[in-house]
Write a structure and sequence with these properties.
Keywords: ATP-binding, Nucleotide-binding. By secondary structure, the chain is an alpha/beta fold. It has 11 helices and 9 strands. A hairpin with a 2-residue loop joins strand 3 and strand 4. The chain has a 5-stranded parallel sheet, with helices on both faces. Bound molecules: adenosine-5'-diphosphate (ADP).
């Protein structure tokens, strides 16, 4: 059997994903053209799960990098390492994906340091190259390589944002929280709870999302609802589970915390 350097990034099982609209076909079209894809949407609404599902559907390995404000170009591209045999070059995750032909998903790309755009630009236009200046190599991306990035426009202004010269290289797919019925089905499936509890949790989320007009940065995500649902399976009452999984993490502001607790009390 031949060596598969991306074996660790292959998905064995289909990741459960409930489509919101035409995003499966839209992604497949972008993938056919190997166009870089930008996923926009609030945190915890299913972007990562969508990419995992698409990688499985397309039968492609998936290299995921969670970006943070200390992530530099060399974290993505690679670096020289010193070991007992001397120095050796180690490809970073982006280089591995480009070299061997994987989907590379940069989650919350705006968080990464500005120097990362220098390496993304030649990879995301017709050149599809990655200059590895430190080891004197000009890597031509594998034909199967595709870049996918996500970002949350809700944080725009508070944090950094994507420059037009970067974002104009991508095709965009917009995500938001699923409709109530579908979100309840997702919460029931992922949190392993019955449909009626899932619907009540979604009702709490809808109330919290309305508080955005009152200063809340972001309402409860689908992820938070799944956490609350899962806690109830471990013996917490739905109310306590919501306070723990939703109210407490969402805000430190006492007035907003009171409003969030009222949203929970309205459902339970
Ligand atoms: P994001 O990447 O947008 O921050 P995730 O993809 O990690 O969010 O979603 C958080 C969780 O919510 C997932 O782990 C999954 O359990 C669930 N989820 C959200 N949307 C969907 C969906 N459309 N289909 C299936 N699961 C979903």
């Amino acid at each position: 059997m031949s060596f598969d350097p991306l074996q660790a990034w292959r998905l064995d099982e289909e990741p459960y994903y409930a489509p919101q609209a035409e995003e499966l076909a839209a992604f497949e079209a972008a993938h056919a053209l190997r166009l870089p894809v930008l996923l926009k949407g609030p945190t915890g609404c299913g972007k990562t799960r969508f990419v995992e599902h698409m990688a499985w559907r397309l039968n492609k390995p998936l290299v995921t990098v969670a970006c943070h404000d200390d992530l530099s170009a060399s974290d993505l591209v690679g670096r020289w390492l010193l070991d007992a045999q001397g120095t050796r070059w180690q490809d970073g995750p982006l280089t591995q994906a480009a070299r061997y032909g994987a989907l590379c998903y940069l989650d919350e790309v705006v968080e990464a340091r500005a120097d990362t755009t220098v390496v993304l630009h030649p990879l995301t236009d017709a050149r599809r190259i990655l200059p590895l200046t430190s080891c004197n190599e000009l890597l031509h991306a594998h034909p199967d390589f595709q870049l996918v990035v996500s970002y949350n426009p809700g944080y725009q202004g508070m944090h950094k944002t994507l420059k037009p010269s970067t974002r104009q290289r991508f095709v965009g797919l917009e995500f938001s929280y699923p409709g109530a019925g579908q979100e309840a089905a997702i919460v029931a499936h992922e949190g392993l709870v019955d449909a009626s509890l899932a619907r009540q949790l979604v009702a709490v989320a809808e109330q919290t999302r309305r508080l955005k007009e009152h200063g809340l940065t972001e309402g409860a995500s689908t992820r938070m609802l799944i956490h609350a649902a899962s806690l109830t399976r471990h013996g917490l009452s739905p109310r306590v589970a919501c306070l723990q999984a939703i109210t407490c993490p969402l805000s430190d502001d006492p007035d907003l915390a009171t409003a969030l607790a009222a949203a929970v009390d309205a459902s339970f």
